[in-house]
């Protein structure tokens, strides 16, 4: 069986000369990232395994160090690469109302009993996650993923129930 991976961040640049890297990641994920020991860096379409020596956090990014990478030259080749964990490990760290992006993309969006569109992507504006919903009229609308608007998510039935407030899907 082929492994499935979930992106947890991106190597933005090197940090110092001892092989550390600046890691960009989603806000409020520090406790999850602190527990990760094994990651994969995607380079040239391949997932290369790495063991995390440590990760620390600054106000703007994470500083990550991998075992076996001890110089600026060794980490520099990974600048711009995505960092992944095994999907199983990512799922173990999800809170009750958290979902993986690939679970949400493709779900149908309903207002009451009426299908109003489907999710085509997920992004973040700094304040909250946003569902990109392609409406029945083929418009793309951003729907804040907050409890007041997204009432329920049912992965099994591929259904998201929303409170379609005025102007949301126009």
Largest sheet geometry: 6 strands, antiparallel, barrel
Strand content: over 45%
Calculate the terminal CA-CA distance, rounded to whole Å: 43 Å
Order of helices and strands: EEHEEEHEHHEEEEEE
CATH class of the largest domain: Mainly Beta
Shape: elongated
Mean of residue pLDDT values: 86
Class of secondary structure makeup = mainly beta
CATH architecture of the largest domain: Beta Barrel
| Unreliable stretches | none
Give the fraction of residues assigned to helices: 10-25%
CATH superfamily of the largest domain: RimM
Using the CA coordinates, give the radius of gyration. Answer: 19 Å
Q: Supply the number of helical segments.
A: 4
Give the strand tally: 12
Q: In what order do the strands lie side by side in the largest sheet?
A: 1-2-5-4-3-6
Written overview of the protein:
With 170 residues, the chain is mainly beta. The protein folds into two domains: 5-92, Elongation Factor Tu (Ef-tu), domain 3, CATH 2.40.30.60; 101-162, PRC-barrel domain (SH3 type barrels, Roll), CATH 2.30.30.240. 12% of the residues lie in helices and 47% in strands. It is built from four helices and twelve strands; from the N terminus they run ββαβββαβααββββββ. It has helices spanning 30-35, 72-76, 87-92, 101-104; strands at 5-15, 20-24, 38-43, 46-57, 62-66, 82-86, 108-111, 114-124, 129-135, 140-144, 150-154, 159-162. The strands form two sheets. Strands 1-2-5-4-3-6 form a six-stranded antiparallel β-barrel. A six-stranded mixed beta sheet has the order 10-9-8-7-12-11, with no helix packed on it. A hairpin with a 2-residue loop joins strand 3 (38-43) and strand 4 (46-57). The longest helix has 6 residues, at 30-35. It is elongated and about 55 Å long.
């Amino acid at each position: 069986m082929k492994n499935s991976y979930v992106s947890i961040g991106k190597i933005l640049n090197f940090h110092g000369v001892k092989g550390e890297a600046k890691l960009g990641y989603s806000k409020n994920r520090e406790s999850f990232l602190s527990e990760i020991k094994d990651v994969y860096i995607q380079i040239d379409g391949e997932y290369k395994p790495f063991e995390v020596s440590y990760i620390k956090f600054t106000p703007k990014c994470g500083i990550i160090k991998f075992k076996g990478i001890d110089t600026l030259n060794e980490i520099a080749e990974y600048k711009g690469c995505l960092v992944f964990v095994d999907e199983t490990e990512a799922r173990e760290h999800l809170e009750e109302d958290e979902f993986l992006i690939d679970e949400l993309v493709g779900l149908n969006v309903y207002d009451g009993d009426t299908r109003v569109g489907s999710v085509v992507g997920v992004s973040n504006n700094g304040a909250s996650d946003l569902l990109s919903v392609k409406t029945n009229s083929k418009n793309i609308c951003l729907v804040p993923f907050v409890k007041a608007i997204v009432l329920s998510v049912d992965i099994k039935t591929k259904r998201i129930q929303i409170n379609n407030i005025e102007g949301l899907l126009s």
